[in-house]
Predict the structure.
Amino acid sequence: MVNKKYLLLLSVILIMNLLACAPDMGGVVILKPDESSHVYEAHEAVILKAIAIVFKEKSIGTNIRIDQKNLRVDSDYSESGDWRTKASARVKRLNWKACEVILAVTTEKKTKTGWELRRLLQKAQYDTFFDVIELQIYEEMANVE
């Protein structure tokens, strides 16, 4: 009887460890790309250019395009092994001095049934991404002056 309790406890601990490691083993399968947003105090054109530069520097997709009319930066998929990644950012003017950036990084893993959308970036990674964009915005503002 005691051995069964220990075996059950050990099984529960093992299952909990596997579940805790699941995000590290390839991400969670999702139905649509996650989005995260951040507010910057800069002009839309400067923000769009900064985002495009960061996408290029970090190799987040290929064929990065700035759409000034629709205030967007988009990329095509960049493949590496069984993974592919692309990014999209929208800029929305909030008031006379602030713009909101909505960022979506789409990551897919190749499986036997096709490409599956996976979550690899968490809030902390999006925050780091926004910090890098902010530094690039400051660089672009310094270049303009």
Q: What stands out?
A: The first strand starts at residue 28 and ends at 29. The chain has one domain: 28-144. The longest helix spans residues 123-144.
